[in-house]
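Progress against Task 2.4 (sequence-to-structure conversion) is shown through the following example record, which the project officer requested during the mid-term review.
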Amino acid sequence: MVIVVAAVSVLTLAVVSVVIPTSTWAGGGSGSAMTVRVDVKDLSTKQKREFVSAILKAKATPDPNNPDISRYDVFVNWHKNAFRCKNSWKQDGNYAGAAHNSPTFLPWHREYLHRFEAMLQDVSGDPDLALPYWDWTDPQSTKAVFAADFMGGSGDPEQNYAVTDGAFRKDNWTISIQDPPSVLADVTPPQDFIVRNFGSYFDAGIALPTKRQVKDSLDVHKYDHKPYDANSPDARSFRNTLEGWRDATPGECDEGWINVSQEPGSPHVLHNAVHIYVGGLWAGDDGTTTMGTMAYNTSPNDPVFFLHHANVDRIWAAWELEQGQHYRPQAGAQTGWNGDDTMWPWHDRTINSWLSTARNGYVYASLP
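Structure tokens generated for the chain above:
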């Protein structure tokens, strides 16, 4: 059962200073004040085993509202359907998604992660289990994420870049939900196992974000700026700076699904770059593009997605405290973007109610 949190009014940000022991889960389910999300590198062997076990159990447990899919795959489906044109907004011929390339990118994923964390607590029976984060700027955090005892490593080129170690290896983790055919034109059909080709981006390659890039994003003063999509100026849009769009082409609706890309040669950075780094994009033998799991709209099929987005949320949490700014637009924009609007598909809480992690029952052990 998805846990629904009661609505909260517009929030005033407050600085939170915490010193967190990382030897045990520090959750909010057993009387403690906050759930604390820690860096993956600080998890004990036992914590890593418990987290992996919870994900595997969620994948094997039918959703009570739709027994045809697992409780894990509910989240894959939500992310996939956020790219449907009918769930998006169109302005001047440019489509912006319900959860991406729009102001809702950060609050939508914050609610999404909150629900995912609550679901794992429920299926595991551990109310203190917390979602850890992957600090992409720290090689030790990256090493811990892709260790065999956690997410497993890059794929084997002799097996179509299938992940072959760890709990999410080929034949132990089967992908059930794929992108629709219209999104996969000129793309090699996706596999039913996790595919990773670290750092592959055609001839150029791609690297993980740096501390400097994260710092520069935190220095952007305004949350967002018109036109409130993938073309919002990064110097005036923290959201678009962090999301990682640069020189985006207008979003199109292709057979009911949104398609957004960038001008050739434009860099993918921060959030977008991490998706590409983990999954990879490369030319197949027949000239079609081959993609890793994290590069698809169904990227939550790779559990690394949730560790990645916890770090995105962590950076937003740092920005909220440093800048003291609230979400914008507050009013006058497309329905679904304004501060007092609710977000598809839940429509139970306003965007403004998601400002501040502490007011939503969790904090990060450290901020960038």
